[in-house]
Specification:
This protein is an all-alpha fold. The protein contains two helices and no strands.
């Protein structure tokens, strides 16, 4: 089932290989972690922008 892509594809592949309980557990786990991971990615991007701004020739002044 390699042709399936995206979150639904992952869950579907798990359901086919490990059973419905494993698939549902995977969907719940991904749902619970999604909001936390969005915070982590936003923080990483903000930190990278801050570092780039500090390293600019103007010394961080606009």
């Amino acid at each position: 089932m390699l042709f399936l892509r995206g979150s639904t594809g992952y869950a579907f592949n798990i359901i086919l290989s490990d059973g419905i309980k494993a698939g549902v557990d995977n969907i719940i786990q991904r749902g619970l972690l999604a909001s936390f991971m969005h915070i982590v990615w936003t923080t990483n991007i903000a930190a990278a922008l801050w570092i780039v701004k500090k390293a600019s020739p103007s010394g961080g002044r606009c």
